[in-house]
Each structure stands twice: as C-alpha cells, then as structure tokens.
Fold this protein.
Amino acid sequence: MNVQLLLTGNELMRGDTVDSNSAMIAQHFGRLGIDVSRKVTVGDDLELLVSQLRELATTADILVVNGGLGPTIDDLTAEAAARLTDTALVEHPEAVDHLRRWCAARSFPLNPSNLKQSLLPEGASIIPNPRGSAVGFKVRFAECDIYCTPGVPVELRGMLEQTLIPDVSQRLDPDQIRLIQRFHTYGIGESSLQQWIVDEIPDRPPQVELGFRAGAPTLEVKLQSPACAATEHHRFVGRLGSLLKDYIVAESDGSLARTVVDTLKGRGLKMTTAESCTGGLIASMLTGQAGASAVFEAGFVTYANNMKEEMLGVSPEALISRGAVSETVVRQMALGALSRSGADCAVAVSGIAGPDGGTEEKPVGTVWLAWGSAADMRSVCLYFPYGRRMFQTMVAGAALDLVRRFIAGIESTPRYFRDRRLKSPAS
C-alpha cells in the first residue's frame, strides 16, 4: 500500500512551525506495517495545492493531507480538494452540527468565519474531530483515498487513532501487519547496547528487525516482525526484555517520568526534588505527567548558594569547604528537601552545566546526585561532557532513573556509574 503525505502551511515553509505531524502519521502507519513513501510540503497557495494533490493522488493508494482546515482565508485544503474532484463546496450538515456543539460547549458565537469550516467538497465523508472545531474529510480521486486532517497535533492524533487508522486497517491482509515492541532504556549508549545484545543473544531470528533510536534522555530499542513470525518475535522480545530488564525505563509510548510517577503511585509513596544545575527540569518532567499531584507535592530550585542555605538548610561550612558541587552539599540538599516537604524519597542534583565555571578538579559536565530516603541516602558523581541543554537533560534523566531504581528495589549497579565516572571526583 503506497501512502504519501502532503503538508500545507506558510508557517511550515518559513520555519515558524516545526513539522512533527508527519512523524506522528508515519508512526501510526508503521504500526500497520506501512511505510510512508513520499512527503511533500507546500505553502498556502491554491494552485500549487491542487497541482500537488493531483500529482500525489495519481501515484498513491492513500494520501494524507495535513493542515489548511481552519476558519481563516489562508486555510485552502477544502477548496483545493473540491477543485481536484471537480465538485462544489457545500455546507455539510454534520460539520455544521459539530461546530454548533463545539461553540456552545465554550460559549463561543457561531460566526461566519467558524462556518467556513463546514464548507467541504460535495460528497465528502466526514472524519470526526474529537478535540477541535474543524472536522476532517475524505474524498476519492484517481483510485486514491485522500484523508484531509487539521494541523493541530492533538487533533490529528485523535483522528488517526479513532478514524483514519481503523479505516485503513480494514483494507489490510492481517499478515501485512507488523508486530512492534519498543523498549525505552536509560544508561547505555547506542553502540554499547547493540554490542551487548549481539554478544548475549547472537541467534536473533532473521525475521525480527532490530533498530535503535537515540533520544534524550532515553534510547529506544525497537523490534518489529511480520505477523507470520509472531512466535519468533515474542520469544525474542522476552529474551531481550530479560537481558535489559534493569535498564528498561518504559515500553511502547511510555516515558521515564511516567514510569516514576506510576511506580511511586503503586507503592503509595511521594517524592521531592532539590535542583541546582537542572533549574527545575526534573520537577517539570514529573509534573508533565497526568496524576503527578498524587506523588509530588513540592520541589526546590536552589540555584544560588544562599538559597541552598535558606531553603534547604545546607550548611555554610560545607559550601565553603567543599563547594556547591560536592557530595556533602548534595546530600544535605536531599535531606533538607525531605524534611521540608514530608516526602518519602528525594533526589538532589548540583553540577557544572557550563560553558564556564569548570576547574581541573571539577570540569564542566561534573554533577553530584543524591537520592533515596532519610534512612537510606545514596550519592554518586557523574560526568556528562555535553552542551548546557543536553547536560541538563541527561542529568535529569539520571536523577529520575536513580529514583526509579530505588523505589523499585533494583540494587544492581548501573553501567553508567562506571562509564560516566570522573577518575577522582572531589567530595
């Protein structure tokens, strides 16, 4: 099945908006065993839109058009599709009804600009929009099904999951569908992880495709196989899961922060954070998860030394004699956060994000972390020689991973303690 994409919008062409929707679409089709063969992006130009629609539809089985369904004059997708199919733009009753309900729920007036979103090619099929005001629609041209979707990512996701992908999957032979398993790992580099897998599981079945996608702070390991190789697929997934078990922080569409929140919730625990070099990033990653309020009530961002003293009770003597980036200080930060928040466990970080501030003894990229409970506080010095933003991201990842390991009772020493250790950190 040949699937192609047409993305539209001046904001995409000018770089004002970064295209993430094509990746989302490709991922959803990938789960059906279908790769996107072509992607084209054009600005808000009616003639160009019609031309590209015609060119793509003559070679594709499915064409997904993204963008241009809003209420403004530069939203041209419906008009372009009408010209392509030589049909009139008509007010679609189902689209009007959707608009009325959407506006009423928000106490908005249903004005002429909103009603523009109900003008669709005659004979088009509606694609419901569970989140936004603009419905999508489907038309057919030159033996190609054309699905027109809005550019707002959360709206696109709802349409993909509820309508578009189920619609396409009905046309597939079940043997075409790929089996996919994703493991998100933290603490092992891409080349090291691949070598470990090759060494420990050298007999990977040829039908099972192994892939890696480096991200920050995690690394994704992806397994995919044809449905006819289900037995081999599930057996290898089990073996790989057993090998990587302590390093797997999430599966499928999960995340490290999501896992930490869920694990804390499952054990009835609460945590707190004490951050210096990460500037609140750890707390932000936690509170970005739904339900975080059940396990996280307070975090502390103490960037300056005097704030470490005033907010967390770090001793001035420790700051003077050891420095802010030290084992003594970071442990006091964690204990102070526990005392002031009443949480069950804490993580604290203090490091040198750079580009300035490093010394021979404590170079840029050095960070001390402390994590655990008041009765069982642990600490380590790690070294992340990256740019400032990546340093903060990887430190936040390490902090969450150490909390994950602590609350899950994982006592094995992670490899990154060895790989990321300074030869002689100052404490």
